[in-house]
Amino acid sequence: MKTMEIYAENSYIKECEAQIVSINGNLVVFDRTIFYPVGGGQSSDKGFIKQGDKIYEVINVKKGDGEIIHELDHPLRDTQQACIMHIDWSWRFQNMRYHTLLHVISGYMYQHYNALATSSQIEKDYARLELAFSSEIIEDIPLEQLEQSLKNLLAQSHNVHTKTISRREVEQKEGTIKTIINLLPASLSEIRIVKIDDIDEQACGGTHVNNTIEIGDFSIIKIQNKGATKKRLKIQLL
Ligand SMILES: [Zn+2]
Question: What is the topology classification, in CATH, of domain 92-237?
Answer without folding.
Answer: Threonyl-tRNA Synthetase; Chain A, domain 2 (3.30.980)
